[in-house]
Amino acid sequence: MATKKNNQSNTVKDIKYYQKKFWRLFAYSLLGMLAFFLFASWGLFGSMPSFEDLENPDSNLATEIISSDGVVLGKYFKTNRSQLKYSDLPKSLVEALVATEDARFYEHSGIDGRGTLRAVSSFGTNGGASTLTQQLAKQLFHGEGSKFLPFRIVQKIKEWIIAIRLERQYTKNEILAMYCNVYDFGNYSVGVSSAAQTYFSKDPKNLTLDESAILVGMFKNSGLYNPVRNPQGVKNRRNVVLSQMAKAKMISESEKVRLQALPISLKFKLESHREGMATYFREYLRDYMKKWTAENKKPDGSDYDVYKDGLKIYTTIDSRMQRYAEEAVSAHMKNLQQQFFIDMKNNKNAPFVNITKAETDRIMMQAMKNSVRWATLKDMGKSEEEIIKSFDVKAKMTVFTWKGERDTIMTPTDSIRYYKHFLQSGLMSMEPQTGAIKAWVGGINYKYFQYDHVGQGARQVGSTFKPFVYATAIEQLNMSPCDSILDGPFMIHKGRHHVTADWEPRNSDYRYRGMVTLKQALAASINTVSAKLIDRTSPEAVVELTKKLGVKTEIPVQPSIALGAVDITVEDMVAAYSTFANQGVYVKPQFLSRIENKSGEVIYEPIPESHDVLNKDIAFAVIKLLQGVTESGSGVRLRTQGGGSGDNRWTGYPYMFTNPIAGKTGTTQNQSDGWFMGMVPNLVTGVWVGCEDRSARFKSLTYGQGATAALPVWGYFMKKCYADKDLQISKGEFERPKNLSIKVDCYQRPVIVKDTTDTEQNTDEFQL
C-alpha cells in the first residue's frame, strides 16, 4: 500500500513538473514573440516606415497634364502611375477585389486571424494568409518577399506590423484606393487608372463589371494574366473572380453565367510620350518644366521630379479644340500631300525644286549628320566614310504614310529623301483677351517628325507681315483704311533706308490698279502700297511696333520686310494679331493655369503679362482692314461655294461663313511658306504650311499659296469649333470703340479678286 501511495505522489509530482515547464516555455515563447515584434517595429531587423512614410509613401506618381476642360492630355513618367480616390473607383471593381482577394476585409484590423491559422495549419496549401492591407504594405515598402525562410518570416512579421499601422492611419476605403493605385499591371501601367486607359482606353469610373473582373484577376499575377499575351488564361481567371462575386452574393448566378460567356474585349493602347493628343505641346511643356523645376524648389529645398512627384499641371488647352485642330491639320495635310506627290512625279531631284546638285548634297549630308543612325555609328567608333557608305545599304524599316505605318525595305538615304517630301504644318489658337492658348499643333506626326512648327520653327511670314506696316502708317501718319494711295511703279533708291541697291518692288500679277484705298490694298495684298507705306514711316518704326507686338526674332531694318521677308514663329504671329483683336493690348500667350502637388496644393500660378501697344481706334482700324481680306480678297473663299482653281484641295470647302472674320493670307518666295491668320472676336488662330526644307515646295501658286495651303486648315477647324456649341466661339462683331476717331466704313465697289493676288513676286527683292 505504501508503494502505491508513493507512485501516485510521484505521478502528481511529474504532472506538476511538466505543467510548470510548459507554462514556462509558453511564457518564454510569448515573451520572445513579443520581443521579436517589438524589435521588428523598432527597425532592428531592417528599417520600418515612419509616421511620415505612412502619410506620404514613396509612390512614383506620374505627372498629369490636364486640359482646361478637365481631360488628361498626357503624362510624364518613368512609372506610369496615377493617383485615384476611392470615389473614382467603380463599385464593381471594389466588390470584385474584396470578394476575390480578402472576403473579410471590412471585419479585420489588418491581419485576418482565421485566414492566418488556416494557412499555418495547412502549411500554405489551403489559401494564403495575406490581407489586402498586408499586400499593400508589401507593395509600398519592400516588394516581393525573400525565398530564404528566416528572412521571409521576418518580412511577414514586418508586413503585419505595417498593416496594423496602415489600418490605424487610414480608413478602409483609403486603403482600397491606395492598393488600386500601386499595383503594377504590366505594359508600363501602374495602378487601376493607367491600366484602364492602357487595356480599355477609358477612365476607371467607366469600366464595365466584366472589365473590372479582368483587372482584379490580374492582381494575382499581372505577368501571367496579361490580356494581350494570354487571353484564354485571363478569361479563366476573370471567370474565377465572377464566381467569387456570385459566392459573396454580389451578383446573381444568372449574371455570372452571362458575364463568363463574354469574350475578352480590349482597346489596348500603350500610353506613350510620342503618341496621343497634343504631343507637340506636351514636349514644349516638358522643356518648360525642366526650367521651372530648376527655378522652383520644394519647401524643404529639394528639387521637384516631374517624372515621379505626381504633379498636376493644369493647362489652358481645351481638349475639344485641340482635337478639332489636330483633325483639321491631318485632314488637309493628307489631302494636300497627294497633290504634292503628283507635282513631284516628273521631278528627278524631288522634292527639291530649282537647286543645284551641290545644294542638294549639302541638304542630304546635313540630314544624315542629324540622324540617330549617324550618332549611333559614330559612338561605335565608325569613321565618317564608313557611316556615309552605310546610308546606301538597304535595310528593313517602318515608315510613315498618311494611310498608316508601312514596313518596307529601302536605303537610309532614300528614306531621308522620302521624308523630305512631306508637307508640315503648325497651328496655334488663342483667346486674345486672356492669352490662353486653346490649341497647339506643331506638326503632322510627332512620332516621325519631332520639330515643333509652332514654338520652335520661325518661318518667313510673307504678306501676313503687312498689317504691322499698315498699323504703323495709321498710327504715325494719321491714315485711315479709307484713305487712298496710288498703286503704281515705285522705287527706293540706293542709300535710303539702308538699301544697298535700288529696290523696285512689283505686284505679284505684274499690273497696277491706280488709286486704291488702304482697305483695298491690303485685301489685294498690293506690294507697291506696302513698300510706299514703309518708306513713309521708316523700317525702324515698323520694327519697333513689331517688337511691341511680342515678336522675338531678329527683324532686319530694311524696306523689304514690308513684303514679309521676316522669319517669325506661329506663336509670335498669333500673339501679335491678338493685340488687334484685344483693342491694342498685347497679352503674352499663356499655356499654364496652375501647378498642384500630389496633395492638391497649388504650388505655382503664373502671373499674366500684358502691355499697351496701340490705342483702341488704331487696333479697330486694323481689324477693319483685315476684314476686307475675307470680304473681297484672298480670304473670300471662306464665304463662297463656287470653287475655283485647285478647289479639290480646299479641305472642308465650302465653308460658307457669314459672321465677321478678320484675316490675312501669306505666301513667300517660290511658295516655300503658306500662311493664314484668322480672327473672330474671342479666338485668334494662325496656320503655317510648308516643307521642312524651303527648297522643297510646290511649283505653282495654285497649290502653294497661303489661300490653298493654310487657309483650309483654319476653315475646317472653325467649322468644327462652331458646330460645338459648348465652346461658345463668337460669331458677333468685333467691339467698336466709342467715339471712334478713324474713318473705317468706306464705300467700295464690288470687285472680284483672284486668289493669287496675295503673293509676293518671285524676284531677288527678298534678298537683303
UniProtKB/TrEMBL annotation:
The keyword Manganese does not apply. This is Penicillin-binding protein 1A. Its main location: membrane. The keyword Cell wall biogenesis/degradation applies. Pathway: Cell wall biogenesis; peptidoglycan biosynthesis. SUPFAM superfamilies: beta-lactamase/transpeptidase-like, Lysozyme-like. It catalyses: [GlcNAc-(1->4)-Mur2Ac(oyl-L-Ala-gamma-D-Glu-L-Lys-D-Ala-D-Ala)](n)-di-trans,octa-cis-undecaprenyl diphosphate + beta-D-GlcNAc-(1->4)-Mur2Ac(oyl-L-Ala-gamma-D-Glu-L-Lys-D-Ala-D-Ala)-di-trans,octa-cis-undecaprenyl diphosphate = [GlcNAc-(1->4)-Mur2Ac(oyl-L-Ala-gamma-D-Glu-L-Lys-D-Ala-D-Ala)](n+1)-di-trans,octa-cis-undecaprenyl diphosphate + di-trans,octa-cis-undecaprenyl diphosphate + H(+); Preferential cleavage: (Ac)2-L-Lys-D-Ala-|-D-Ala. Also transpeptidation of peptidyl-alanyl moieties that are N-acyl substituents of D-alanine. The chain crosses the membrane at residues 25-45. InterPro entries: Beta-lactam/transpept-like (IPR012338), Glyco_trans_51 (IPR001264), Glycosyltr_51/Transpeptidase (IPR050396), Lysozyme-like_dom_sf (IPR023346), PBP_transglycosylase (IPR036950), PCN-bd_Tpept (IPR001460). It comes from the Bacteria. Signal peptide: none annotated. Residues 430-682 form the Penicillin-binding protein transpeptidase domain. It comes from Flavobacterium procerum. It is found in: Cell membrane. Residues 72-245 form the Glycosyl transferase family domain. Keywords: Carboxypeptidase, Cell membrane, Cell shape, Cell wall biogenesis/degradation, Glycosyltransferase, Hydrolase, Membrane, Multifunctional enzyme, Peptidoglycan synthesis, Protease, Transferase, Transmembrane, Transmembrane helix. In the C-terminal section; belongs to the transpeptidase family.
